[in-house]
Amino acid sequence: MTDLLNQSSNSQFKFSREKILAFTLILPSLILVFITYLYPAIFTFVISFAEYDIIRLKIKKFIQFKNFEFLISNYFFTSSVLRTIYFGFLICVCTTILSFLIALLLNEKFIGKAFLRVMIVLPWAVPSVVSGVLWGQMFHADTGFLNALLYQLGVISGYKIWLADPLVALHVIAIAEIWKAIPFMTLFFLSGLQSLPSEVFEAAAVDGANVFQRFSNILFPLMLPIAIPLFLIQFVLAMKSFDTIFVLTRGGPGGGTTTLNYFIYQEAFETFNLGRASAAAYVLLIITLAVVLIPTISRFLIKFFWGNK
Amino acid sequence: MKKNLILKNFFIYFSALIVFLIMFFPLYGLILTSLQPENIIRSRNLSFFPTEIIFTHFAEVLKPNHISNIYEGIKNSLIVSFLTSFLCIILAFPAAYSLARLNLPAKNIILGTLISIYFLPTILFVIPLFVILVSYQLDDTILSLVVPYTAFTLPFVIWILKSFIDKLPVEVEEAAKIDGCSTLQLLIHIIFPLLRPGLIAAFIFAFILSWVEFLTPLIFTNNLKISTVALGLFRSTIDIKIGQQAAAAIITLIPVTILMIFFQQYITKVVLSGSDK
């Protein structure tokens, strides 16, 4: 009996010792994350209800929901919210489709595949400032390749100032972002494709299913569980994009390329209205969470109402 | 059947060419611009091949008093990126081991929180950090860059290392424990050497992510006392000399490109290790 007691208390002791060790090992990381994420997030939350004095670095006074009320009635803000959602959606749809196609290509056997893969991964390591410079030069009004090419092909009659048109400029930025986002998603799709059982496709081919049938009935449903998280992650990352906008257009012309992230930057570090910027940052956070959570919740609801199939 | 195969091959090589052109042409355009005299860049004769190669843009950019201040930028970026990667690994290695192998309560919640933080808008954390740094007069220092970079990259590095540790055989650790090896000894003498590919991959990721970071240095070095390569390059865009701008962009790009090409297998390994769960 005493033996048993001893043993159990001993294992209890060992058990908690391992827990303590586990915590000690992860604690430094958690502390750093706490200091740089959680505390600032709370701080931002508090000053989103206040007017902040940037010179004395103090909260001047609490103004309840005034910051949020101002934002909602501000045309620049509401249009940049809609623009951010459009921009994020556009980028992740294009990136997902293109990356999937490139991954399908890389899944085939051909000479020079290893080389092509390096070339495809390369844009990921390109600093976004460089990609901003690069696409800026590509679409440059006087020296850009695009103008020269289209002019000589006779598509345009004169050189166009691409970045002067807000709508065109927004899409130029989207192209730059898509170009940078393709590498990573392609790699993830490729590893997904390589983990698929090849027997299924062979069996389908024997059964006489053509390429399109094989794609829509086998490949597409099998890849969907990989594609959906990648799609959502890309959506979230695209809404965060800042560097390309800053380098290419600085939010202009006429605020036409100001996404929410850029709006927050301007409020915080150009007009130094930290309270308002914090409120806007929380709106961005809520949109981000919504993008991630809506599919999860809807999947849960579908399961709940239609049963687990 | 044979005709079909030829058609298929033709289709594959044709699409490979298109993909290559789309992904590589922008970089090629940048290289071309950096090597051509300004008057050729500005002329309206379209040419996709260099007619005259010069290196004066690079020479101009590398002069000590150039607007992009490239030497200082490279020096600072190297220091900051190395420190960040180093710190990340020191912090992430024990944390990843704890998450992968030890009996840590609420393991999945901790890992989930860490990873989801990575996707939250950076600007949310940058505003108060800026206020804190300014109030302690720590802005415009190497420290003001290394600490936030480390925190921003850490969740990702922990995730990479954890998925590599998950792949290691448990038997080795069990055998070592039976031989009386303490956890600390186990970590240093057994796991660390076994984990080398994972550590290299994590180091490269942290290095590249710090090298390309732009928003943080833009805000935290607001008095322009220290500069990074990304910032230096951005400053050169204020200038109208397109050739020099392209040359500065290429110099910024060289270190990360070398890392990418030499360690490509490690980067692919990260993706592969994460996907099979």
Structure, described:
The complex is a heterodimer of chains A (309) and B (277). By secondary structure, chain A is an all-alpha fold. Chain A folds into two domains: 2-47; 70-306, MetI-like fold, CATH 1.10.3720. Chain A is built from twelve helices and two strands. A two-stranded antiparallel ribbon of chain A has the order 1-2. In chain A, helix 3 (75-106) runs antiparallel to helix 9, helix 4 (113-125) crosses helix 7 (166-194) and helix 9 runs antiparallel to helix 12. Chain A is globular, with a radius of gyration of 26 Å. Residues 1-10 of chain A have low confidence and may be disordered. Chain B is mostly helical. Chain B folds into two domains: 2-54, no CATH class; 61-275, MetI-like fold. In chain B, helix 1 (2-35) packs across helix 13 (242-262), helix 4 (70-101) crosses helix 12 and helix 10 packs across helix 14. Chain B starts with a helix and ends with a helix. The chains are: A mainly alpha (309), B mainly alpha (277). Chains A and B meet through helix 1, helix 4, helix 5, helix 6 and helix 7 of A and helix 1, helix 4, helix 5, helix 6 and helix 7 of B.
Terminal-residue CA separation of chain A: 51 Å
**Mind describing the biggest β-sheet of chain B?**
none
The run of helices and strands of chain A is HEEHHHHHHHHHHH
Distance between the termini of chain B: 38 Å
Which whole number gives the mean pLDDT of chain A? 82
Give, in spatial order, the strands making up the sheet with the most strands of chain A: 1-2
Greatest interface and its residue counts?
Answer: A-B, 93 and 91 residues
Overall form of chain B: globular
Q: Unreliable stretches of chain B, pLDDT < 50, 5 or more residues?
A: none
Summed up, the domain count of chain B is 2
For the record, what CATH class of the largest domain in chain A applies? Answer: Mainly Alpha
Number of helices of chain B: 14
